[in-house]
Amino acid sequence: MKKKNDKDLRHTLGILVENQPGVLSRVAGLFSGRGFNIESLTVAETADPNISRITLVTIGDERIVEQIVKQLNKLINVIKVIDFTSTDFVNREMALIKVKADAETRAEVLRISDIFRGKVVDVSPHSYTIEVTGNEDKIGAIMNLLKQIGIIEVVRTGKAAISRGKK
After folding, report:
1. I need a surface site. Which of 6, 35, 64, 129 has the fewest CB within 10 A?
2. Burial class of residue 45 (count of CB atoms within 10 Å of its CB; 0-12, 13-18, 19+)
3. Cβ(157)–Cβ(96) under 8 Å?
């Protein structure tokens, strides 16, 4: 496995692909075959049901990621690859956070959720499940506050990204 060094950057890649079986496996195979970790991966159809968008986050130096982008572009079902790292883009992820909520902590959980514009999507006698969207820093900040109360479980979608402006 490749080690991170000072030159390694987090790269967010947007990959438009044909919506066909096996495409995701081939894309992921390029990374695993070279010993690179995929930190985050989201996939969904675009406005065109024949095309899917993969948003993938990995860490590596410019030279290595440039090589991966070139190899991704050679795959048959890949339409376009964008490295958002050096561009202006918007990114968000969603997290579902199940947190302990007893009589003493319910108000505090609701207050924290409200501050982060989260939404309580499930209530049980001993827990609340909060939905929150935002960038990685926002998700991390709410999780740090909720850890003090008691996080039971967390599910995160991974990053979705889109370039700003007319692209």
Report:
1. 6
2. exposed
3. no
